[in-house]
């Protein structure tokens, strides 16, 4: 994530000028951190503080300036809190120390932000394992190491960070793709008590939004949502509202709702990111510009002299290197922990929505192609075994390919007529949201009364039109 | 007295503010915003036979569809119930032309219009990303009470029919999303938006063809049916015509309107009435809940006084001077 602002900057053509809400968070926290540092160490040279916050950005800048980022990597980095799904190299740990050293004066919230930065930075680093960026990284690594040992952290916040580090280390081993995707939902249209409710809570429970530190009027909440489209609205001071800054649509009942599409993190850029991106305010960008300038300079410094004593002083509260003793907690989980502390009863009969952590299996990736795909005899054996297991019916069914790819058998139109009968509300012709694999396919009905009926689902901007054309058979 | 005076003033002010707020809502939203995330759109090729198109409409439970000219790859207007009314009138005055009517294609509707001297199908359309307010204004000029949303394909620059918005959908959208509608508390009689006096009506025994002519002449979407006492008993809507000529049968034009109503499907929403003392907030609340297309204004004895159409409501919201 820290990557993307610089990526944007290096491109500078203003690809999509407004970038990402989550980023906003993070940037803010970094700014705060800087300020906090100034406060905490008023005597200290300003150069230190700028140096610190440049830390979290550093190797990205390096990566971006030294070579063109592959677009995918950049996109990835814009994924909101996508830290769990990418492989994090161990050398990023020190960065956390870098920022965390300051965070003893800041709130948990901000630390979360910092952490996010760090992890996303590492994403970019891992995505572009070029010599140059790695060089930067290793330079910083030594910096980080040098400063970590002297100051064991005791504060509560520090322990969070520590476990965060753990988590990152754990993440070094590849993980199976997750089904839950972290999403940051923000509200910036005033109000004091802001909640979000939506399809992800069955519209029954409300999730409170918390103010973003340093951003008056901006509230947010981070949720883990399953892949798919989610509809939601905000409850602002007991009034049901929708955000003008997020995509909107009418649902089947005609209600105006916000929606976002959560895609698996491995996909290319998701809509929801885009919408987050759009929320980045221009002031932030300006700040980033400035930071960027700083960082360029500081980057030089660090590369020249990676083990300056000043650097180690910047990280007074740095935790010792992560150990395996504490339970891994990700940045997100830390935020979840925070939310946890708030009472579940929100009032008015609403209770807080509790996310369920998906149970994960430990899976491993391999380069070896299983013999079942390479050796015909093994393959046959495999299918014969399958047949035996399934017993009786559909013997040797694997010999005949399916008539249609399975995903094409569920055409939204086929479910339309049945749902319409009992639902008079559906006068806007609303359909379920189609799976993207059925887009741009031509479906036909059997020819009746010399009339041909063809249908095709196409995207129109961010919505889906199922066009049905009736034409005579010539 | 002073208290009630203040109360009245408050209602007046609130209504004024609410209308302004709804208006700015309509200006801030686009037609695109009204569309569901995923929806269907039924389009008819202009070479389709008129009688077949009728079946398609009935089958899909819709009353209108955009037309597509495959030869020019362009949008070719909207097919609505008024087109069928035109055909009925043409056939009624030219009973010998059954062959022509039976083989009539959608692109031949223009000739029918010319023959009976009515206005052609309106082809007014609007880009989906234009403000909803603009779409409403444009729609008021259209007799079809709906407006097609047309965009261009980025690559081929051909027209795309995105969707069709109706007055009802826009008003429902407002009712659902503008809480300000709750503050429209002035009684209707003060607003001067009810069509009173010269409302065409018929009786149960009136021949349906006469009612169809009333629909066409008055350029209205419905004719109230009253008894001898002028008490409202039912309504004949332009969309009821579709059921009447189902399957291309034009033999039933001699029926009375009462008999013709027997063809109406069971899911008819009913006739909605109101009084001059009702408020727009109640009206909008009803629009939110059910598919209302007009309110007949009745007095305490159920006698017909006037009609309040969706156009009237929309016009008030969009253009009233306050």
Automatic annotation (TrEMBL), chain A:
GO terms for cellular component: cytoplasm; nucleotide-activated protein kinase complex; nucleus. The keyword Transport does not apply. GO terms for molecular function: enzyme-substrate adaptor activity; protein kinase binding. Residues 1-56, 84-154, 274-332 are annotated as: Disordered. Residues 117-133, 274-307 have a biased composition (Low complexity). This is Association with the SNF1 complex (ASC) domain-containing protein. Keywords: Cytoplasm, Phosphoprotein.
From TrEMBL, chain B:
The lineage of its organism: Eukaryota, Fungi, Dikarya, Ascomycota, Saccharomycotina. It holds the Pfam family CBS. This is 5'-AMP-activated protein kinase subunit gamma. CDD domains: CBS_euAMPK_gamma-like_repeat1, CBS_euAMPK_gamma-like_repeat2. Coiled coil: none annotated. The keyword Transcription applies. SUPFAM superfamilies: CBS-domain pair. Adenine nucleotides-binding subunit gamma of AMP-activated protein kinase (AMPK), an energy sensor protein kinase that plays a key role in regulating cellular energy metabolism. In response to reduction of intracellular ATP levels, AMPK activates energy-producing pathways and inhibits energy-consuming processes: inhibits protein, carbohydrate and lipid biosynthesis, as well as cell growth and proliferation. AMPK acts via direct phosphorylation of metabolic enzymes, and by longer-term effects via phosphorylation of transcription regulators. GO terms for cellular component: cytoplasm; nucleotide-activated protein kinase complex; nucleus. Residues 194-253, 262-322 form the CBS domain. The keyword Transcription regulation applies. Belongs to the 5'-AMP-activated protein kinase gamma subunit family. Gene3D superfamilies: CBS-domain. SMART domains: CBS. It comes from the Eukaryota. Keywords: ATP-binding, Carbohydrate metabolism, CBS domain, Cytoplasm, Nucleotide-binding, Nucleus, Repeat, Transcription, Transcription regulation. InterPro entries: AMPK_gamma/SDS23_families, CBS_dom, CBS_dom_sf. It is found in: Cytoplasm; Nucleus.
């Amino acid at each position: 994530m820290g990557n993307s602002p610089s990526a944007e900057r290096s491109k500078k053509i203003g690809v999509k000028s407004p970038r990402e809400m989550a980023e906003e968070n993070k940037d803010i926290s970094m700014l705060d951190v800087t300020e906090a540092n100034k406060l905490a160490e008023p005597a200290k040279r300003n150069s230190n503080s700028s140096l610190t916050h440049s830390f979290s950005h550093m190797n990205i800048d390096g990566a971006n300036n030294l070579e063109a980022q592959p677009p995918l990597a950049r996109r990835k980095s814009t994924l909101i809190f996508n830290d769990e799904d990418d492989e994090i190299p161990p050398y990023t740990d020190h960065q956390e120390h870098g920022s965390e050293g300051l965070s003893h004066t800041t709130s948990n919230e901000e630390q979360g932000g910092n952490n996010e930065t760090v992890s996303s930075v590492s994403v970019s680093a891992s995505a572009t394992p070029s010599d140059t960026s790695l060089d930067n990284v290793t330079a910083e690594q030594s910096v980080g190491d040098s400063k970590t040992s002297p100051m064991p952290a005791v504060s509560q916040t520090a322990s969070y960070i520590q476990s965060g580090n753990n988590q990152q280390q754990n993440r070094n081993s590849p993980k199976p793709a997750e089904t839950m995707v972290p999403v940051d939902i923000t509200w910036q249209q005033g109000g004091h008590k802001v909640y979000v409710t939506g399809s992800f809570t069955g519209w029954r429970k409300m999730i409170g939004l918390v103010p973003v530190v340093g951003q008056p009027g901006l509230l947010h909440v981070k949720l883990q949502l399953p892949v798919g489209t989610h509809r939601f609205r905000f409850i602002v001071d007991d009034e049901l509202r929708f955000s003008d800054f997020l995509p909107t649509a009418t649902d089947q009942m005609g209600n105006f709702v916000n929606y976002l599409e959560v895609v698996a993190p491995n996909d290319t850029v998701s809509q929801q990111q885009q919408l987050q991106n759009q929320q980045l305010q221009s002031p932030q960008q300006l700040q980033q510009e400035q930071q960027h300038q700083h960082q360029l300079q500081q980057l030089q410094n660090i590369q020249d002299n990676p083990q300056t004593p000043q650097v180690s002083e910047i990280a007074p509260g740095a935790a010792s290197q992560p150990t395996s003793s504490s339970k891994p907690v990700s940045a997100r989980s830390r935020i979840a922990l925070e939310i946890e502390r708030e009472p579940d009863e929100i009032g008015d009969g609403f209770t807080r929505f509790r996310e369920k952590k998906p149970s994960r299996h430990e899976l491993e990736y391999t380069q070896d192609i299983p013999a079942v795909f390479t050796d015909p005899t093994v393959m046959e054996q495999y299918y014969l075994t399958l047949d035996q297991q399934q017993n009786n019916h559909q013997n040797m069914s694997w010999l005949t390919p399916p008539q249609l790819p399975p995903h094409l058998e569920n055409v939204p139109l086929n479910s339309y007529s049945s749902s319409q009968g009992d639902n008079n509300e559906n006068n806007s012709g609303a359909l379920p949201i189609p799976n993207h694999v059925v887009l741009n396919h031509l479906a036909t009905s059997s020819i009746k009364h010399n009339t041909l009926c063809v249908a095709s689902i196409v995207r129109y901007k961010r919505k889906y039109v199922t066009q049905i054309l009736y034409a005579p058979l010539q | 007295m002073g208290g009630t005076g203040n109360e009245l003033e408050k209602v007046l002010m609130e209504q004024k503010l609410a209308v302004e707020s709804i208006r700015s809502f309509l200006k801030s939203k686009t037609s695109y915003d009204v569309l569901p995330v995923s929806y269907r759109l039924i389009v008819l090729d202009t070479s389709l036979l008129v009688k077949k198109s009728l079946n398609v409409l009935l089958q899909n439970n819709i009353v209108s569809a955009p037309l597509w000219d495959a030869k020019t790859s362009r949008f070719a207007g909207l097919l609505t119930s008024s087109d069928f009314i035109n055909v009925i009138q043409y056939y009624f005055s030219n009973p010998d032309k059954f062959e022509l009517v039976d083989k009539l294609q959608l692109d031949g509707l223009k000739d029918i219009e010319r023959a009976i001297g009515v206005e052609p199908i309106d082809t007014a359309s609007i880009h989906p990303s234009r403000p909803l307010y603009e779409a409403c204004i444009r729609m008021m000029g259209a007799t079809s009470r709906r407006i097609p949303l047309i965009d261009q394909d980025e690559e081929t620059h051909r027209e795309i029919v995105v969707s069709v918005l109706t007055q009802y959908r826009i008003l429902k959208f407002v009712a659902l999303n503008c809480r300000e509608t709750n503050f429209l508390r002035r009684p209707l009689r003060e607003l001067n938006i009810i069509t009173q006096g010269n409302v065409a009506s018929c009786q149960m025994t009136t021949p349906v063809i006469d009612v169809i002519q009333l629909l066409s002449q008055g350029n209205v979407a419905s004719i109230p049916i009253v008894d001898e006492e002028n008490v409202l008993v039912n309504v004949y809507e332009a969309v009821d015509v579709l059921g009447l000529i189902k399957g291309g049968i034009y033999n039933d034009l001699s029926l009375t309107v009462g008999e013709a109503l027997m063809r109406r499907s069971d899911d008819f929403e009913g006739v909605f009435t109101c009084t001059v003392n009702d408020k727009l907030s109640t009206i909008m609340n009803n629009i939110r809940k059910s598919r209302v297309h007009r309110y007949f204004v009745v007095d305490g004895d159920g006698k017909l006084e006037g009609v309040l159409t969706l156009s009237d409501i929309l016009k008030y919201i969009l253009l009233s001077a306050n």
